[in-house]
Amino acid sequence: MKEFCGTSEITGARFSIYPMSDRFVEIILSSLKEVDTSKVWMGTDDVSTCVRGRSEHVFDVVKTIFLNASKDGDHVVLNATFSNGCPGDSAGDTFMAEDSVLMNHELTKKISQEVATQFALYPLGIPGYMDVIMEQIKTVEQQGVFNGGVHYASRLDGDANKVFTALESAFEGARKSDSSHIVMTVTMSANSPTRKEGQ
Ligand SMILES: Cc1ncc(C[n+]2csc(CCO)c2C)c(N)n1
After folding, report:
1. Which Pfam families does the record match to this protein (predicted)?
2. Cα separation values, 118 from 34, 41, 115, Å
C-alpha cells in the first residue's frame, strides 16, 4: 500500500538545456517563452528552470522546451531531475486542480526529432527498489526505445516524442510501486555531430 507524504501528488522537474551554439541565450530564452505553461508553476534562474504540477503537464512542458530548442537543428543537451513524493513538498498545489488536457501536444506531435538519452530511476525508501527499476526497464523495452544498460543508467534512442512517453511511463509505473518518493534523472542529446558507434 502506497503512503503519500504531505502533498506528494505533485511532480516537479528541475532542468537545464545547453544549446551548443553562439546563439545559446536566444535559444534558451525563446524556448522558455514559446511553451504554454498555464497548467504548471514555472520559475527560471541563471542555472536552471523548475516546473511543478501534475505529472503529465510537467513532462509536456519539459519536452516542449527541449523540442523548441532543438527543432532547428542545433545540438542541444537536456539535463533534468524529476521528483514525486518528496517529503515536505507543498508549494504550487493550486495547479493540481487542472485537467489533464496537454497544452503543448498540438505543437510537439508535429515535431520529429531523433534523440539519444540516458536515464536513471531511483525509487526511494524501499528495500525492493531494484525490482521496481527492473520492472520499469521492461516497460521501456516494450515501447521500442530501450537501447541497453550503461553504468548507472539505461539508454533510450529514437524519436523524442516516443522517448518522452517511455520516460513518463517508467516514472508513472514507479509511482504506482510501494516507493513513496521517486526520483528520475535524464540526460538527452539532440543533433549531436558525434554518431553513435555502429551507425
Ligand atoms: C531550461 C533552462 N533554464 C535556465 C537555464 C540557465 N540559463 C543559462 S543561460 C540562460 C539565458 C541567459 O540568462 C539561462 C536562463 C538553462 N540553461 N536552461
Report:
1. Ykof
2. 26, 26, 10
For 54-72, the DSSP string reads SHHHHHHHHHHHHHHHHTT
* The Cα angle at residue 148 between residues 144 and 151, in degrees rounded to 5: 145
Measured from the Cα of 29, ligand 1's closest atom is: 11
Helix (H, G, I), strand (E, B), or coil: what is residue 196? coil
| Domains, the chain, with CATH or none | 11-87+111-190 (3.30.70.930)
Q: Is the CB of 66 under 6 A from ligand 1?
A: no
**Is the ipTM above a cut-off of 0.90?**
yes
Q: Which residue numbers in the chain have pLDDT < 70?
A: 1-8, 91, 195-199
| Residue 89, pLDDT score | 84
